[in-house]
Each structure stands twice: as C-alpha cells, then as structure tokens.
Amino acid sequence: MTPTAPRPILARLWPIALLIVLAAGAWWAFHDRLTFDTLRSSHAAMEAARDDNYLATVLAFIAIYTAVVALSLPGATVTTLTGGFLFGIWPGTLFNILGATLGATLLFLAIRYGFGRSLAVRIDASEGRVARIKQGLDRNQWSMLFFIRLVPVIPFFAANLLPGLLNVPVRRFVVSTFLGIAPGAVVYTSVGAGLGQVLREGGEPDLGVIFEPHILLPLLGLAGLSLLPVLLKGRAPV
C-alpha cells in the first residue's frame, strides 16, 4: 500500500493561521470591552435587549462566547458571569457550557488538523520517554480529559491545546469538555445570577468563590475520582 503523502504545510496550518488573524483583529477591536467595567456600564441595555428579543439575545450570547473561547480572548470569566446575569443559573449554565464547548471544539479542531495529527504520528513512531507518556495518556484518555477539565488551576487554553496535539477523538473531546466544565460553570453562573444587586450597589463579584473550601474540595474530589480508573489499573498516566 502506497503511504499517504504528507499535506503541504500551508494546507496544514491555514486553520491555525486563520484563528490567529481573527484573534488579533478581535483583540484589537474588543479587548477593552470584555471587562467587568463594560458589563457594569451596559447591564441595563443588555437586560432590555434580552427582554425585547430573548431568542436573538441567546443566540448572540452563545456566538460571542464561542468566539471568545475559540480565539482565546481575555474575558471568558466576564462572559460566564454575563450568562448568569442575563439568563439566571438555569438556563444560563447551559448557554455558558454550550458556548464554551463550541469554542473549545473549534480551537481543538484547528490545532488537531493543523499539526496535531502529524505530531501524534511522529510521537507514536518515536522511541523514548515522550512516546511512553503519549501511550500512557492514550490508554487513559477519558480519565485525563476529565481531570484537566475539573482541576480549576489548569488554564482552559491548555486543556484545549493538549488534546489537539495528542490526536484525541473529536467525540471524546466534546463529551469530556461539556461534562467536565459543568461544575465550574455552575459556580460562576450562580455568581453572575446575583450580579443585578451587586451592580446596582456598585460592588464587585467575588470571583474567588471557586477556591472556597466548600466548593474547591468537591471539585478536587471529582478530579480525583476521574483518575480512579487509572489507579485501579495500576497504570500511571506518565
């Protein structure tokens, strides 16, 4: 069987190049708008738009959240708070998770089809520690994917980048992202749901709430539980 010829570099890198160009343009145009100050100054207009056309506001919000995550723009936390502020804990949590998952998937696909596949093939064909690490991760993908989503100190961008580089199946990435970010999304969406009173009083939301013991410890417990299959099999991920 004749081996498949490698794709030209431009054919492999155009998705990533496109995201970089879009990210640079979006940052230049909107980096000063994805802030809590903007939310404070425009919350009344946002509420009016929601009340006038709920469905259009939902679709616009999910599209904006998707773009923020896919382009790795600063402001994901503010966007999550906005989802809670506009739509409440429910369905605000669902809208936040949908936007974050769609954005993460777009970034994941750009990385995977850009150079993730070729890198994974090269690692598999290589010898040494790096190849063994990847083999360990491949054997325990579900556990590791949930772990990096549940631990709140792992940057969201890194949790999207690594699976793309390791050629994780798309369905597995989407499912683990949607379910894995849900606990944290509930916490921040609930903070956003109480923003109305905070904004009227000129206060600031308590974004450190996720590190409170009564919230952080259950999240770490879930993260530890995600690694239980690895421990039971007696195989360290590295």
SSE topology sketch:
Layout: H1 9-30, H2 36-52, H3 54-70, H4 76-87, H5 89-125, H6 129-139, H7 141-150, H8 156-165, H9 170-180, H10 182-193, H11 195-200, H12 213-226, H13 228-233
Helix pairs in contact: 1-5, 2-3, 3-4, 3-5, 4-5, 4-10, 5-6, 5-8, 5-9, 5-10, 7-9, 7-12
Task: Please give a structural write-up.
The chain starts with 8 loop residues before the first helix and ends in a 5-residue tail after the last helix. The radius of gyration is 20 Å and the shape is globular. The protein is mostly helical and about 240 residues long. It has one domain (about 10-235). The protein has helices at about 10-30, 35-50, 55-70, 75-85, 90-125, 130-140, 140-150, 155-165, 170-180, 180-195, 195-200, 215-225, 230-235. The model is unreliable at about 1-5 (pLDDT under 50).
Which features would summarize this protein structure in a list?
single chain, 78% helix, 238 residues, mainly alpha
Q: Nutshell version of this structure?
A:
This protein has helices at 9-30, 36-52, 54-70, 76-87, 89-125, 129-139, 141-150, 156-165, 170-180, 182-193, 195-200, 213-226, 228-233.
Counting H and I runs of at least 4 residues, what is the number of helices? 13
Rg? 20 Å
Report the sheet with the most strands, covering strand number, pairing sense and barrel closure.
none
Number of separate domains? 1
Question: Total number of β-strand segments?
Answer: 0
Mean pLDDT: 77
